[in-house]
Amino acid sequence: MFTNSVNCFYQSRFNMMFLMLSLCLGVCLGDSGDVKMLTEEAYKQLAHQSELQVIYFKKELDLGLEDHVLEEVGLSTDRDAYDDRMLGEFYKEYSKSAKVLAEFDIPMYMVNCKTVKISEYCDKKDSHHNVYIFRGTELLNFSLDSMFDVDAIVSNILQIALLREVPILQSAQERREYEDEYKGKSNIVFSFQMAIGTKQHRALMEVAFRFKNKFTFAITTELSTVDGFPGLTKNDEVGLWLLQCKSSRSCSPARYYGRMIPEEISQFLNDCMVDNVIELTPENIQSEPFPGTRFHLVYVFYDEESSKFVRTHSEIILKKFKGTIGMIFINVDRVKNPYHDLLDNRPIPTIGFKGVDMGTIVFMPTEMEPGEFIEHQLEGYVGKMSPKQSQSVDDSDLDDPRKYLSEVERQDDQIALAMSHFHNKPLDDSSLQALTDKTFPIETTNRDLLIVLFYLPFDAMSSAVYHSFLAAADVLVEQKRSNPLSSVNCFDWTDVCQKENVTFYELPAPLEINSVNEFKQVVDGKIPKSDIKVDAIAIGLVKNEYSNEARMVGKIALELQGYMVVSMASGDVAQKISDMKGIPMSSLVIYKANDQFQPQVFTKVIDKTEDELVTWARQKTIPVFNELTPINLPLIYARRQPIVIYFMEPMTGTDSSHTMETYQSKTTTQEVMTSYTGKKDEDCLVTVILTEGHVFVYGDKLTDLVSIEKWQKAIKTNNVEPTKVLPMGDWKPRIPPYDFVKLMEEDNTYQKQRQDRVGHQLANEEEIIFDTVRESAPVTDKGDLIRGKDELPGMRIETTSTSQSVPPNVGRNEL
């Protein structure tokens, strides 16, 4: 499925990666925006300031991109602006963070160590891999490993700025001592965070900055610190509660039910400061209850006889759901219309629930208690708004301690790395119809032409094809042409994909050669039955498609996907080709249309292992005499042989059908030649032994073939001294590899802690009492609080006949 599209994308991945890198660097080198560049004098002045300052010391680093490359793609040639890909991404995130932190009056600076010599930091090794926090003098520094995006940078810096206002408490004892300190003084906003530096942590810190004069704040990353708090389950990674210490001796916790985003947390805290009780009277019956809030409404119907009982026990519920519900008391003996008809003959008191933006009121069933009923309604109504549901696919797998190491897996996968730039970015896919289990059969039946892409959103290759497919749909829509393109997300609609037998993505298979004429197209560098021309194409000659040789060719096709096209001829067709070209059967042949010295090369399949054949194919694809490019240099270098380079003016007037399309630049040639030889504008012949760093420059006339041969022999026999010795260096991985032993130890520790805590919580599940009314309320002759069926004006009444227990208070273990 979509094999050709995938292959085409994979073959062009180098171009895409260059484009992605160019875009990244364009952002990194643009206007620094809210990041202020520090001079030496300005840096000295910071020592006299008491405000928090953030400084990054940027050193002169080089990605290996030459000036002319940057100029050709419209970028600055400021050499010190570049580091490796990690630093390039960091510059971009640092600039974004400066804009956010400017709203909190926290300035972010950058020191260009190339022009501003602050030796204390500019001369310090690896100082450019840290962000420094100052308040007069240096407070501390953060490694870039912990400052990987805007959320991490902003949350960490705000945490330092508000360390006194938002302390990190890591035990229940610390939390209780903190509560004692603020009893009778202030309510505490307390949060459990799986980790510091996340999006949820940033949201809390932004809210804390704005509400620090109205509430007291604290956080913890230890689950035991919030043991016994309502609502935190094993599937949650965050939790937020209002501890009502100002008016309660026990600092009763009220759970926050919304998403961990600043807007909704702010609304919750504002609602906590509003009186959440209204007594309905004939005068205010038409008024909007609790204007400006996002309260879920709880209607309490009572009469004169039950008034004291209702008022006493409602206080417990109001504290438990502070900031979330607004309670409307309705005395049925005083307010006859319109609620009198609603209640009919139901026993009093009774309770009803109406969620935000709902036109429906639900009454409590007889088998439930008020506290349990309200919590059940909140869970059902705001389930999609709960913290555990607010995360994207990329960061929701909380059970995996390796989640923060995904970058290791991307560093050698160019497609995964390219597609990672699109994660968490809004995508306008309105031009591509997304089919579901309901619309797929309708569209396939009613439309004359329908082209459907079945894809997985988390698979890099699949995501890449989806972006290309979407781009094609955009073009059709812009041109106002008929658009037959649609898609099915196989993660969301597994049943649709299974019914269409789409259960895996096809792996590349050898291209079948069915005739001698098709073989002749292969020799000319063309893919049969298409107009596509390639630099090289391999063909396996096998006796039949079920032989061991055929299976070997199939494996090679898989290994070489995205690198070269592999084809296969079998039976009579293969024998005819063998006889015509004098190539033995069971051979793998490579045809190179752009190699005038060696257009054909072959080897016996049975003489080599699979790995040996793949290596052989990669090496033999390179023409004998070819332009040296960044793409083929690694393959040439892998031979561990001397490289003879002829520096010359770019060729003109060549036949494009026989010449590989390569990146040519006179400036590149001049810079490399100057580095090797010291010369600039004349043709030159050089032999380089990169494994030893030796450069040999031929000094005689290039037309004397005999002298050139003698020169080469002298190099081979070590009878000539190198003209220049290149400096040695290491090309290390961009980030460290996995430490599997450490990962296994961490995983074992994590699983044990999780089992112990879950077992502890399950053992105590029966002790959790959700209904505090049941504990202290005496039995009355007023009957149970019941549900009703009548309608309020403008409302539809629904009944609830079954109860559902609230999930047990089982804590979520942090990583």
From TrEMBL:
Residues 783-815 are annotated as: Disordered. Residues 162-251 form the TXNDC16 second thioredoxin-like domain. It holds the Pfam family TXNDC16_N. It comes from the Eukaryota. Residues 1-30 form the signal peptide. Gene3D superfamilies: Glutaredoxin (3.40.30.10). Residues 798-807 have a biased composition (Polar residues). Keywords: Signal. Residues 37-158 form the TXNDC16 N-terminal domain. Residues 783-793 have a biased composition (Basic and acidic residues). PANTHER family: THIOREDOXIN DOMAIN-CONTAINING PROTEIN 16. This is Thioredoxin domain-containing protein.
